[in-house]
Amino acid sequence: MDERVREHAEVLVDWSARVEAGDDVVVSVAEDAHDLGVAVAEALGERGANVTTLYGSDELSRAYLKGAEARADGDRSGDNPDDDPDDDSAADPDDPGGVPDFDDDPAVDRAIFEAADAYLRIGGGRNTTASADVASETRQAYAKARKGVREARMDTDWVSTVHPTRSLAQQAGMAYEEYQEFVYDAVLRDWEALAAEMARMKEVLDAGEEVRIVTERDGAPDTDVAMSIAGRTAVNSAASVAYDSHNLPSGEVFTAPYDAEGEAFFDVPMTIDATRVRDVRLVFEGGEVVDFSAEAGEDALASVLDTDAGARRLGELGIGMNRGIDRFTDSILFDEKMGDTVHLAVGRAYDACLPAGESGNDSAVHVDMISDVGERSRLEVDGEVVQRDGAFRWEEGFEG
Amino acid sequence: MDERVREHAEVLVDWSARVEAGDDVVVSVAEDAHDLGVAVAEALGERGANVTTLYGSDELSRAYLKGAEARADGDRSGDNPDDDPDDDSAADPDDPGGVPDFDDDPAVDRAIFEAADAYLRIGGGRNTTASADVASETRQAYAKARKGVREARMDTDWVSTVHPTRSLAQQAGMAYEEYQEFVYDAVLRDWEALAAEMARMKEVLDAGEEVRIVTERDGAPDTDVAMSIAGRTAVNSAASVAYDSHNLPSGEVFTAPYDAEGEAFFDVPMTIDATRVRDVRLVFEGGEVVDFSAEAGEDALASVLDTDAGARRLGELGIGMNRGIDRFTDSILFDEKMGDTVHLAVGRAYDACLPAGESGNDSAVHVDMISDVGERSRLEVDGEVVQRDGAFRWEEGFEG
Q1: pLDDT at site A81
Q2: Between the N and C ends of chain B, which has fewer C-beta atoms within 10 Å?
Q3: Domains and CATH numbers, chain B
Q4: Biased-composition ranges for Acidic residues (chains A, B) (predicted)?
Q5: Entry pTM
Q6: Contact criterion met (CB < 8 Å) for A55 and B37
Q7: Which residues 12-71 on chain B approach chain A with CB closer than 8 angstroms?
Q8: If you count residue pairs, one on A and one on B, with CB atoms under 8 Å apart, how many are there?
């Protein structure tokens, strides 16, 4: 086995999830993530933890949902031999929609996450579009029914990572070995040192009241946007549950801004609901998006912004600080943590950034948009430049 | 997808496990059993069941156990940085054995099977000897700690089957496509008809008091063994939980004999604890094995018989009636159900064969030994021939 796979497993188990002897750990292994699953299982045995392994197969999920769709269609047409008028878990025969009904309290899945101390999700399937032919209504109905399970899962010490697979390499537009290098560069950091550096940024944001981001770049609209962060707490997202950070890799500091004013341009492409979205421009007045455009995928962007009232307000300001990530791969797990980037998200804010008992921006969506700030840009907090052209003020080469 | 895979899934879900809408079904998918897992997930979606998928990987299990061994070794040598004197889940440092201590109440695994209605185990790994380098003491310690989980699992409507893989084909000494044919011939039966035929055999055994098996075959020692079955109930093992039968394929009728007298010869090779055992001869007096021999693997046989007092007494008499199985493949899932065979097991008897509240032969082991009865043999119940040269008395060609 590639030694980097073992190192990845050790970072995941020890730094990220902080597994200790006696912990009940649930590991979900995607179709092609077997090798990392093996390395994680060995590490968990060494730590004296219990392990339960789930098969996180997109193809199985798709098959289950397609089966449920066939059932809902059968119920509607009335020719399903399994049709039982007394069975209230079946779809309502009067429902013309044909959207499957799912049990909103699946006993086994709930029991798993209620009993688990930690949950390690290892992505890495064989096809990132494995569920492309499942109706979005079906997916939404399933996600809605799984709300309780999802909440129980979020109450564990959960960490999400990926094993580099050919399918993910393809999504990133990279060769397989090239993509492996990319993933391990991002994951196998000196996390202790990065956490210390990110603590400096958190300190600045926690003490600050206003953030202003300015970019002046050739061929791109300028960004000049200001937002309040007074009273908000930044999260030092250092890829560990000890830092309330649940992604490996991570490497961003984020907070929950409000009252945005000005114009922001996002030059990093992204995918919203399978639609490619490029060159997004948002105009804020009084904290709300009052105008927007995109060079591609504008309809998908409009649909996000129209979701609910909170979808037009900011939920997150994030500053990417993982310099192991040096290119965009169309995966939010990596893109938003890249060094020399900042991102803003419209939609839901994270509770960890809010004063206890206070609710921040609420929305059914949370969509991150990323801007490269490596050149001709600056980030100011209360009028002082903290980052210019990518360099932080505590770094060599910083020119205030 | 091969249509036979879908048919296999339907037999498993509908005939074997009797899954209904709203059931909580746990499916364990082995490393190379993905395709059958997909077909089962689709069928469960169609039935309106909930599904939770476990990854039944022998390589992950092996890695976990090797990790636990490394931990136990580290604890013993005292140089394990994780060594914590207050941690009672760690191995006892005074224990010179280096055998891992396992948590005997793993919360997640127990919760899964306590919440599950049905458990479908789909075997089919990449290497049947994937755990060959795990110490047998480690395996035993793990199995012992898992007793509670195993009992909870046996309380579900569980069914064990296999997806035909190259690894299993290799174990059977067959080409891959040839092995696929073999598995589907065994699994895709008219189970309703076979269950009806097996019911006739069950009727004979339930009414009978004494079974005698006689073989006179060229080049092999003769068998002439008699045993009592009075008061015992035969199980019609028709590959369905509705028949208290938990294997797919199945196709045997079995009961719990006692007071064996005589000599039995088993010409079908088998594997006991990774040792090939051939041509076993057992001599019974007063229900106990008083003499034995094997042409190969006699030590492994001796070790089984020496396990405990019950290991020298019979726990099972089984009559194979699945004529879809036409060859031995060194897999008990198939071998013992083959048409024209009978098998006796030393060790533990199944509760289902015993009068309510009565305990039959008790032992830590249950080892099946198989005899081909297709030629020059007869099975008598209370002096009447029920099967001669493989043919049952209700079949054409039977010569009483």
Answers
A1: 47
A2: C
A3: 3-187 (3.40.1830.10), 191-392 (no CATH)
A4: 80-106
A5: 0.90
A6: yes
A7: 21-22, 24, 26, 29, 31, 34, 37-39, 41-48, 50-55, 57, 59-61, 63-71
A8: 182
Q: A84 contacts in B (CB within 8 Å)?
A: 21
% chain A with pLDDT above 70 = 94
Give the mutation candidate from B23, B84, B112 for the A interface (greatest A CB count, under 10 A): B112
Q: Which of residues 336-365 of A touch B (CB under 8 A)?
A: none
Task: Spell out the residues 6+ positions from residue A51 whose beta carbon is closer than 8 angstroms to its own.
Answer: A25, A26, A27, A41, A44, A45, B64
The token duo for A237 is: 């997202």
Q: Check: CB of residue A361 under 8 Å from CB of residue A272.
A: no
CA B319 – CA A171 distance, rounded (Å): 55
Chain B residues with CB inside 8 Å of A71's CB?
A: 45-48
A77 touches chain B (CB under 8 A): no
CA distance B116 to A108: 6
B223: β partners: B215
Cα–Cα dist A272/A138, whole Å: 18
**A314 DSSP β-pair partners:** A346
Burial class (CB in 10 A: 0-12, 13-18, 19+), A177: exposed
Find the CB nearest B108 among A24, A89, A107.
A24
Give the type of residue at B245: S
Q: How far apart are CA B244 and CA B250, in angstroms?
A: 11
Nearest Cα to Cα of residue B64 among B137, B6, B142: B142
Q: Please name the residue ranges forming H helices in A89-146.
A: 107-115, 136-145
Q: What are residue A188's phi and psi, to 5 degrees?
A: -90, 70
- Alpha-carbon Rg for chain A, nearest whole angstrom, is 22
Question: Which chain B residues are within 8 Å of A90, Cβ to Cβ?
Answer: 21, 48
**What are the structure tokens assigned to A322, written together?**
């993982």
Q: What average pLDDT does this structure show over B324-348?
A: 95
Of A281, A289, A292, the residue nearest A312 (C-alpha): A289
DSSP letter for B311, please: G
Chain B residues with CB under 8 Å of A106 CB are 24, 50, 52
Q: How far is CA A12 from the centre of its chain?
A: 17
A 102-131: CB under 8 A from B = 103, 106-112, 114-116
* Yes or no, beta carbons of A47 and B84 under 8 Å apart: no
Length of chain B: 400
pLDDT digits (tens, 9 = 90+) for A194-249: 999 999 999 999 999 999 999 987 777 889 999 999 999 999 999 999 999 999 99
Q: Which of B55, B59, B73, B92 is best to mutate for the A interface (most A CBs within 10 A)?
A: B55
Nearest-CA distance from B30 to chain A in Å?
9
Q: Where are the beta strands (DSSP E) in chain B?
A: 24-30, 50-56, 118-123, 157-162, 210-215, 223-228, 235-237, 252-255, 258-266, 270-272, 275-285, 288-296, 314-320, 341-347, 366-372, 377-381, 384-388, 391-392
